[in-house]
Each structure stands twice: as C-alpha cells, then as structure tokens.
Amino acid sequence: MNxxxxxxxxxxxxxxxxxxxxxxxLFIRERMFRVARRLPVAVVAPTPWFPLQSLIRRFKPHxxxxxxxxxxxxxxxxxxxxxxxxxxxxxKFDGLMxxxxxxxxxxxxxxxxxxxxxxxxxxxxxGYAASLLGRWLKVPFTITLRxxxxxxxxxxxxxxxxxxxxxxxxRVFSVSESLRQLLIAHGAxxxxxxxxxxGVDTKRFAPQDKAACRRTLGxxxxxxxxxxxxxxxxxxxxxxVIEVLPQIRQQFPDLIFLVVGGPSAEGNNRAELEQQVQxxxxxxxVHFLGPRQPDELPAILSAAxxxxxxxxxxxxxxxxxxxxxxxxxxxxxxxGGNKEVICDDDLGIVVPFGDQEALREAIARSLQRDWDTxxxxxxxxxxxxxxxxxxxxxxxxxxxxxxxxQHG
Length: 408
What we know:
This protein is an alpha/beta fold. The protein has helices at residues 26-35, 53-56, 94-111, 123-137, 149-152, 159-168, 177-185, 210-217, 238-251, 270-279, 297-302, 318-325, 338-341, 356-368, 373-382, 385-406, and strands at 9-12, 41-44, 47-49, 70-73, 76-79, 82-84, 117-121, 141-145, 171-174, 193-195, 225-229, 256-260, 286-290, 306-309, 330-333, 348-351.
C-alpha cells in the first residue's frame, strides 16, 4: 500500500467499544471501520481513571468499568490507555490528560509510519487532546462533532478549549447541520465545518417477518408494539414514553413497549424505570430486553409497529436510520439533528421536547396510521454508508496531501 496515496488515520476517541463495554461508541466504530476498508486505520481510545474509582463502584457498579490495554477488532489495533480524570472536578484538564496518556502510543505509530492524521470524535475533550497531539507530533487532525458539543460549548470551563480545537483543526465534520450551526454561532468558520452524517447498513438492517419475530419474543400477533433502543439514561427519555402509556392504553389496551438497552458511559437508570413501570401498573406492558448485539436488533425492530425516542439531546441518532431501514416510522423530539433525520411526514412525527401531550398524541396517531413501509425503507437505502465513507476518505487523502506539501 502506497502511504502517499493512502494516509494512515489514527482515531482518537474516549468512547469506543471494548470487550468490557461492547456497546460503547458503536456509531464511531461503524463509521471509521468502514473508512478502514479504504484507508489504514488504528484506534487510540483513552479511558478515564483516578485512584479511588473502585470505591465509587461499590455504590455505582457500572461506573468506569475500564478496558483492556489492547484489542484487535476486525484486524484493527485498538489501544485503551488510561488518563487521570477526577469525576465532577477539573474537567478542564481532561483534554490535556488525554493527550499526555495518548502521546506514547501515537509517537510509536508515527515512528512506524502509521500516523498521518489524527481523527478525533467529540470536540471536547477528544478534539482538544488531538489539537495538542497534532502540535507535538506535527501532524494534522480532524474533529467530528457528535452532540456533546451542545452542552460543552455553553460551559465556561470548557468552551474556550473546545473552540480553540475546532479553529485549529484541518477539517471539522459534523453529523448534523444543527451542530454545525451551533459551532458557527460560537465563532467557528462556516467553511471549515462540513456535514457528513452517519449512514446505515441496509444489508444488516432490513425488514423481517413480523409474525415470526413476535413469536420469538412472545408477543401476541395483533398487539400494538412500540420499541425504543438506547442506553438506559435519563437523556434518552424512556421515562417520558412510559409516562404517557396509561393514557395510550385506554385507546390501545393491547399496547406493549419494548425497551432495548443497558448501562452506558452516562450511567444506568433501569432501577428507576422499573419503579416507574410498577407504580403505573405497567409490569405486563413494558418489557426490558436488556442490551442486545447489533445483529439482534433487526428482529426486535421488525416485531414493532413504531419506533419512539423522547430524547433530550442527539447529534445524529443512528438508531433512527436503523429503525427506518426495518420499515418502522419514528416518533421523536425536536432536539439536535432529529428533524434532519426525520425530515418528512412520511417517515414519522417530530414533537416539541417536553410536551408530553404532543408525545402522547403523536404515538397514538402513529399507531392508527397506515404507513408506507416501502417508502420508509427507500429513504433508509438513500442514506446508506457508501457515499459518506467515500467523502470522508477523499477528505483524509486531501488533508494528508496538503500536509506533505506544507512540510516539503
């Protein structure tokens, strides 16, 4: 492989799957491992650590479970160095600490001819760490905006570092136009940020026989079925959906709600959700299916009628496209890039965040409507990965070529 034509990319992200946390950052791996089919890729995924975190695990068992030092995933090297991070304090130092712990790995990769571009995911702390590493190692870096920027850019401790990293990047990719506009409003150059959303694997995610999928899950063939997929954390809004179920059941007594997901890096509120379900008398209506592998999701999605996610913040929710690819319409909230994905009334309904009556009405209306599932599927096919990966690969090749010209 000619390095001049095929630059080596090192992905830098603190959220990446491992054998310990197999569900973390799947959307990053999916995107960049597809790039790896065209360009050589390695991954450095720093994991937060501090000396007393084992004590916190006594009260929060899923807190910072850690990761192995190294894994080979689909033939790609993934390192998980630890960086010092005190929870709740000194977040402004996370980027620096992440850069310091990653430096030995990236230096070795550069010396071995395996580093031409650092590709960071999330502007802070990852993007800021990449800006330091890029300066220390004299290589260009890119940043992908994924949604946490909405919160961090308004944090006085972090906003300066975040914007500094964005301004220094060779290129900034955004998974949605809403995130791009957010950064432009805070001083970023419009020309520097390009929207390249995530795609969907339409071979993996495709409609399956609904009756067969329901039999497997023990769901009555004529039931009205909702499904949500995501980490069990307040941001994803499972509790908002559960809250409106008693009213919807008055119209649809056979209603069932499938909740797919488990603990994530943001936490785990399954106990609170189960208490809410019990208090509302919905024990036989809400089924917690736990975390599932990507290959298991198409059958679960195909067993449902409507996908619903009452989230409070999203960059670009891959799971929407996965549901659409299985022929499911989507009901969601008007936050982040949700309206960019569900951009047509034929794909679903987007409601104002926090308006529970609008959410209830949208779910009920969706259950009554005769959706054009073939039209929904075609939209997902139009958002397959190929075009996005081609654009990313082209940008990386151009950035590497410009860096070589600049350094002679």
